[in-house]
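>> received
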Amino acid sequence: MKQLKPQDAQFLYMETENNLSNATMLCIYEQPGNTNFDPVEVISQQLDSQLHLSTIFTHHIKQLPGNLDYPYWVIDPYFQLKNHIFSVTAPSPGDWHSLTKIYADIHSTALDLRRPPWEIHVVTGLKDLPDSPGTCFALVIKIHHAAIDGTAAMRFFQALHNSSKTVKKATQNPAEALQYEAPGRRTLLGNAAKNIALSPVKTLSKLLLQAKAAAESREAKLSNDKTSKSPVPSTRFNQSVGAQKTFSGVRFPLADLKSIRGLANGATLNDVILAICSGALHHYLDKHGELPNTPLAAWVPINARSKDASDIEGNNISAMAIKIASQINDPIERLQKICYATYDAKSGRSGRTARIVTDLTQHMPAAGMAVMTRLILGSSMTSKMCNLAISNVPGPNFPLFMHGAKCQQQYGMVPLSDGMGLFIVAMSYDGYMSLSVTSTATILPDIDFFTECLQQEFDSLLGKIPGTSSKQGAVKKNTPKKPAAKKASAVRAVDSSVKE
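>> returned
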């Protein structure tokens, strides 16, 4: 018997027809020279040998009537692998634009929660993608966010692959995998009563800890920056979100991003990512005559796992709200301001509202969580806390292979919510960092231009390094060949704790 944690269940309660709780990865692979290589057959064989890795594969989510208690993972007696693997052929010419359209469409479609909450779509017919020359194929891996967060998703993805072209056999017999049966009525009622009784105690304990931390942070407050007290400005990103999402992405060499850290004292890789996003927002909003004179605020998820945790399922995140200095013109000054802001937030001196809301929800009873989630989403609370979300998901700094096929690129799309219609996910993999953008055509009609702004800010910061030309680190933009669309729409999940 395995129960969803409160934070996992929250992604079920927040789901609406327009805002699904899908976490969707796009992985692009080179096509091996073997003419007999069939991507659909390969992924089917690989998954069949790895079903024991996680309950996600073979269990579905059973919700209780009236949200009496949090849902349970229950074995799906009708599970068949073929119901979760789909084949898609990209329309000619099989370029970046074709792929990103398929990707966004898959992300925007609901999962069948009567089955285990995941799907893998194998996309073939691709050729000469940016940074992936020649024939290639892609996997679009869609998992419900109730089952996994960004850090767990990256571990989950890594577990499905090999670190070399050599195909390894499964380390465990799939028949040995754990199977969770549906709990009986008496067990359900007993667990529900226990959880409801303990909830006020846990919530009060957390409140006392938060109150103590807040008092200490006030006494030790170091920054008098007036911008930290400024209200969150209203932007185009703070509106209702439509059902059809859009995606666009760009990649940068990880070594160049690490070099940019030297432009500001104490800058981390996360600070550099926030600065690039801030600069892009500055250029984009200024171009449209919409740049506020106060800084935008970003909701930044934080991986709350311990350093030795190795779980590949579930959610364990906190969050902080960061003022990202988007009103400042100079890129180095922007980066330095962001360093101050993240330092204050990590020290508990600012951005506490987002952290408190996130942490307290982990101790609420299911019925209260469901009601509170809907109340928050139906109010303007989100737009008062932030304008967008920016997440960093660290991945392996080495290549991964699927039956000899090398994964060349990774991107991620994540859920949006009314009042927060822009989510940027940074994912590191094999020496590169991809920035993936999730939005809608109404909120970001020129998403290609926005990713150009990301590239522009990266080039600008790189060019500020003494003795470095911005062209040295530039990566070919993901721009389709069609003149009308320079790049297609782009965007996960969720770890801001990297301090490289």
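>> The longest strand covers residues 132-144.
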